[in-house]
Amino acid sequence: MLWFQGNSMQLVKSSFVLFLRNLSALKTTLPVLTLFTKDPCPLCDEAKELLKPYKNRFILQEVDITLPENSAWYERYKFDIPVFHLNGRFLMMHRVNISKLEKQLLKLEQQGAGC
């Protein structure tokens, strides 16, 4: 009986370790920074250069507003690109505001650490 309990305890420990790893993976999911752009867009190219030092803190998703499936974004942002959303919420337009980006990334990172 004691041998069986020992194996059960080992199984519980193994399951708990897997659970913690999965929970940790959820916490480390990077936020998505969406760049609404078109080609050519020199301001967008400049913005992407400014973002390079932060590339390990978010996933950059580019949306070409000139594609037919993005016509709603084209109507909204045709005179304002580059436009950035962070996790689906408007963040900034025209130029990268490093201070604002830093503040929002830090806020998301702190929320993730507090889960």
Give an account of the 3D structure.
Keywords: Electron transport, Transport. The protein is of the alpha+beta class. Helix content is 51%, strand content 18%. The protein is built from four helices and four strands. It has a four-stranded mixed β-sheet with strand order 2-1-3-4, with helices on one face. A hairpin with a 2-residue loop joins β3 and β4 (89-93).
Beta-strand content bin: 15-25%
> Secondary-structure element sequence?
HEHEHEEH
Helix content: 40-55%
Mean pLDDT: 85
- The secondary-structure class comes to alpha+beta
Count of β-strands: 4
Strands of the largest sheet, in order across it? 2-1-3-4
The whole-angstrom Rg is 21 Å
Measured distance between first and last alpha carbons? 39 Å
Count of helical stretches = 4
Q: Catalogue the unreliable spans.
A: none
User: Biggest sheet: strands, sense, closure?
Assistant: 4 strands, mixed
Name the shape in a single word. Answer: globular
Blueprint of the fold:
Elements: H1 2-27, E1 32-37, H2 42-51, E2 59-64, H3 71-77, E3 83-86, E4 89-93, H4 98-113
Parallel strand pairs: 1-2
Antiparallel strand pairs: 1-3, 3-4
Highlighted features:
single chain; 115 residues; alpha+beta; 4-stranded mixed β-sheet; 4 helices; 4 strands; globular
Quick overview of this protein structure:
It contains four helices and four strands.
